[in-house]
Amino acid sequence: MAEKPYTVAVAALGKRGMHHATAVKNNSRFQLVGVCDIDESRVETAKAQLGVAYGSTDATKMLADTKPDVFIFCTLPQLRLPMIKAGVEAGVKLIAYEKPIATSMNEALEMFELTRAAGVKTVVSHQHRYGDHYAKVKEIIESGAIGRVHTVYGTSIGWMMHMFSHMIEYASWYNDYADPVWVAAQAWGTEKYADVHTSPDYVGAIVQFANGVRGYIETGADAPDVPEVDSMWQKCRIGAQGTDGFAEVLTGKAGKGGGWRAVTRNGAWGGPGAMDYDHDMPPYIDQIADWLDDDAQGVATPRVHPCNGERALKGFAVMMAALRSATTGGRVDLPLGRSAEPELDALKKVLDSRG
Q1: 3-class SS at 99?
Q2: Which domain holds residue 16?
Q3: What is the number of domains present in the chain?
């Protein structure tokens, strides 16, 4: 007998929301039972495209009416906490949402206090890891071909609240998710504070990991360009250096500079790869079902989703530690506790004072 599909409701139907909703609709393990957006025309368009009967402009009402197993939301960053509260109060089993996970460490800690207390699983959209080029770099690193890893890095000319989360996530993956222990950072520029993904114009962070590996993360206008890649949002380089070489991924799009390259003890080599939501989203959605299956069956070692929220929280703490370091001018130790003021606000006062 076929397994009963998990029911899913999706809030916010912009580009990323529709990526999620479409991937859910195309997966036999799930049933899309509701869609929601504050723009009613988007709701009607999504209902028609996806063949969904239920639509709403109110996420809380949608959750109450549809009672889904899984709640996915792709809202602006400022709405993370209210959406998490709505999902927890509706009794969902899993909440999947976009990065960055929050806008401050205080908010992130409150969110995870709620989900942990309710036993709600969380998954964060770091789906680029499913790209063939990202996976190839991980394979090379794990093979030992670059020797002992001593440095990991990630750079993007996209600004912090858009891209830092991706950079630290994949750099940490290439370092086997060793715990970060301290961060030292610098930042400048306030133009991007006006963006919906409020950020300083540039952030450069040094991250020390517990296993001795050093990390370097840069985001924003003054981060290194990736001239091989044409599209601005795909100008990302993430990789690892070892005692015998390096391996790195260039995010890119098909035919526009994406791929991977490496210099190892076996020589120099490389290959193709590209950011492709049609390729990356299906396995991301598949593994949500796997994790829920294991929980329902009570297995001893569940298949925890590789994009689980607890990992994302560690990466987010690095991002907030970078802002605190840039504000105070000193090293910031991890793990992070609460702060008297949201990190972005505190840093802006310092940046404004510099003129």
Answers
A1: coil
A2: 6-124+280-307
A3: 2
Give per-residue pLDDT as tens, 63-72: 999 999 999 9
Q: Does residue 348 belong to any structural domain of this protein?
A: no
Give the residue among 54, 9, 56 at the shortest CA–CA distance from 30.
9
Residue 308: pLDDT band by 50, 70, 90 thresholds?
very high
Beta strands (DSSP E) in the chain are: 6-11, 30-36, 55-56, 70-73, 94-97, 121-124, 149-156, 180-188, 202-209, 214-220, 236-242, 245-250, 259-264, 267-271, 332-333
Mean pLDDT of the chain: 96
Based on the fold, state whether residues 117 and 224 are members of the same structural domain.
Answer: no
Q: What is the CB neighbour count within 10 angstroms for residue 99? A: 23
- Written as six digits, the tokens of 200 are 């300083």
Residue 110 exposure: Cα atoms within 13 Å on the Cβ side: 14
**1 compared with 167, residue with greater pLDDT:** 167
- Least confident range of 4-13, 125-134, 271-280, 288-297: 288-297
Q: What are phi and psi of 223, to 5 degrees?
A: -70, 155
pTM over 0.85: yes
Q: What's the full length of the chain, in residues? A: 355
In a domain, 254, yes or no: yes
Domain termination site, one of 275, 292, 318: 275
